[in-house]
Structure to design on (174 residues):
């Protein structure tokens, strides 16, 4: 559903009311709205940061990624705080792939530390590998050759080839 300008502002107002009661999805939405993710809604990084901090306290890991970017780039007040940025990402690096990718990027551009970047990228790859293993396990009892639906058959074959390629890539990377 696409909202026009008035509907967008009304929805933000409604979500701000719910955020006042610590409704996690509403808090995170308000953070995204003020971060500038939605058309018609005025960007306010200071408010976005406050909502993301509240969302983080409500256990929404994605909020930590936005906080890291805000602090890393000094978006709210122009003051860069790389230590805080890395702190927010480190909190979720074991559970959120994007955190590892940003940490790797920051390690390269800020610290010029290739080993640190490598470790974060490898951590990202290992998480991907776990997800791929779960995917394969869910498909292990499917005999692809006996499937009649050609689209499903091609999807499963492509999926399995992709998983195999990722495994080879991780081995080469290591």
């Amino acid at each position: 559903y696409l909202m026009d300008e008035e509907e967008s502002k009304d929805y933000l107002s409604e979500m701000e009311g719910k955020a006042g009661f610590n409704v996690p999805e509403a808090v995170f939405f308000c953070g995204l709205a003020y971060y500038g993710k939605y058309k018609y809604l005025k960007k306010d990084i200071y408010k976005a940061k406050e909502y993301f901090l509240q969302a983080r306290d409500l256990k929404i890991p994605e909020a930590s990624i936005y906080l890291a970017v805000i602090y890393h780039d000094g978006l709210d007040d122009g003051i860069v705080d790389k230590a805080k940025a890395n702190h927010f990402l480190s909190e979720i690096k074991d559970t959120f792939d994007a955190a590892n990718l940003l940490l790797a990027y920051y390690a390269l551009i800020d610290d010029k530390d290739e080993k640190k970047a490598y470790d974060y990228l490898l951590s990202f790859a290992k998480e991907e590998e776990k997800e791929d293993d779960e995917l394969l396990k869910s498909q292990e009892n499917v005999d692809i050759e006996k499937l009649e639906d050609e689209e499903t058959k091609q999807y499963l074959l492509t999926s399995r080839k992709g998983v195999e390629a990722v495994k080879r890539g991780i081995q080469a990377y290591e």
